[in-house]
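Pasting as-is:
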Amino acid sequence: MSPSRVLVLNSGSSSVKYQLLDMGDSSRLATGLIERIGERTSLVRHTPLASGGEPRERTGRVADHEAALKAMAEELAADGLGLDSPELAAIGHRVVHGGKHFTEPTVIDDRVLAEIERLIPVAPLHNPANLTGIRTAVSLRPDLPQVAVFDTSFHTTMPEAAARYAIDVRTADEHRIRRYGFHGTSHAYVSRETARLLGKAPEEVNVIVLHLGNGASASAVRGGRCVDTSMGLTPLEGLVMGTRSGDMDPAVIFHLMRVGGMSADEIDTLLNKRSGLVGLCGDNDMREIRRRIDEGDAQAQLAFDIYIHRLKKYIGAYYAVLGRVDAVAFTAGVGENAAPVREAAVAGLEGLGLAVDAGRNAARGGGARLISPEGARVAVAVVPTDEEMEIAQQTYALVGKDN
């Protein structure tokens, strides 16, 4: 029997998330998180799902990513799922930025590594950590196919009219300035699952996907292909997020430099870490914001209203881009769990065929579900995202046939 297991790795600057999946039956065998890498007290958390065992936690210094992946390997081996297993078909890596070049999952070789490294200037927080995880995994299993699945690849189908900024073309090309988009694995998975929920093929469906977490993005998906998305050169553009500003007049930056005396690094910190919901009201947790609103907090209400206003603008814009919309799908932490956000986002859009049924919207469920009224012209859905499964599926589709 051919090997059917895929290990999915998501290497951050100080953390490694992992899942081991069996693509034979799409089951999860183990999941884990190693965080605070390089700090005095690191945390290793592992859950052996295949055996139904209890989650395990241990603390102690994990010096670097090599030590982190070795700790992961030890945890997997303790459950009989070690990296030396002949059932392991490949390792799939989440890579945040693939630029314009990588349009699909790619088997990693020296050329691919060099290109990911070349993209570090447009993804300085993410690509270096992704590279470290890849190189460490290769050192542990040099004989195993390693596959890069890029956050940006789903959005490479955008037409130039959507991907280009209206700046001097030569300057843009020289510095690779264009709209790349992010959260691509989530948008790909959710758009496809939304089509399944409607009983149709992805090629038959136009979907607006709203990935609403601490980071948030929207996409317009026509027939399974992205034609527009809200994030741009970086994840800063677009919707109001937990700590990011989203869309803003770029002249604000010049004003803060000239009048506020702020440096580029200070403005970068302001817009990425001290803006969005946390900048507006001091909280970036939607549950806390809703609690404050219920207590009559005007600042929390204003933050919520700004968040919803931006969200509605993108729904309307992408409705215009697509021309026909079959479904609007909410996903990620806020999208899946915050009924008031979903209700407010489509309120007043009945003329576009959008509405939620109060009872369906309030009900909590674990799977994909419709929350629009029976017979609605446009389906409104809640579709839990599963980026690890998407990475595993893309990885196995690429290398599984060769095993």
